[in-house]
């Protein structure tokens, strides 16, 4: 083998190794969202099962095998379980609004009861992230509002009720004026926000806390947590969400803080 042959061969092997590097896969899914989605039970279909027919015609056998594969794929797509946070509907979501419950314990069921007592239709938030007191630490509870793709009841007082009409409300259980949510709650929040921002093309600037909304007369979600959302959390998420297609609504948000 000549020297130039050897060089070509080595370059080829190197390209194959780099091309399949695990780092690329990890970079494409930094929050493990796909991993979470694929942990759902999927029907197991063996696409490479040999065709039962023992026809001597090789071409016909290949055709049958391909048709079988196509059918199996279509069936897999049809019956695959949806991501637990995925919803079907046509509502336009423009903002993600983060809240705290300002109480040590709670869960979606308790908030639902409390909100109904106030005369509301049902729990005002779309998602609740529990803290180990009333629900396990970091569990994401999906409210029935989200499944129905219904407007929120968590961020009133804005022009045209904009932040309720188009804002996804996430409440973390706890009081975060001086303390931060648990690391498990923070990890769940980051996963949920990344999922929603990607799914609805919500830019980083429109990921806000309750007190950021115009005319909001509240401290929610507490000073410490507010700083965390706009500091460390967004810094980590920025490279990943930079490609959100919809531009931020500068006019609406310019008056905040
Ligand atoms: Zn709030």
From TrEMBL:
GO MF: N-acetylmuramoyl-L-alanine amidase activity; zinc ion binding
GO biological process, one term: peptidoglycan catabolic process
Protein family (similarity comment): Belongs to the N-acetylmuramoyl-L-alanine amidase 2 family.
Species classification: unclassified sequences, metagenomes, ecological metagenomes
Descriptive protein name: N-acetylmuramoyl-L-alanine amidase
InterPro entries the UniProt entry points to: Amidase/PGRP_sf, Amidase_domain, PGRP, PGRP_domain_met/bac
PANTHER family: PEPTIDOGLYCAN RECOGNITION PROTEIN (PTHR11022), PEPTIDOGLYCAN-RECOGNITION PROTEIN LC-RELATED (PTHR11022:SF41)
Organism whose genome encodes this protein: marine sediment metagenome
Ranges for domain Peptidoglycan recognition protein family: 77-209
Domain N-acetylmuramoyl-L-alanine amidase: 81-222
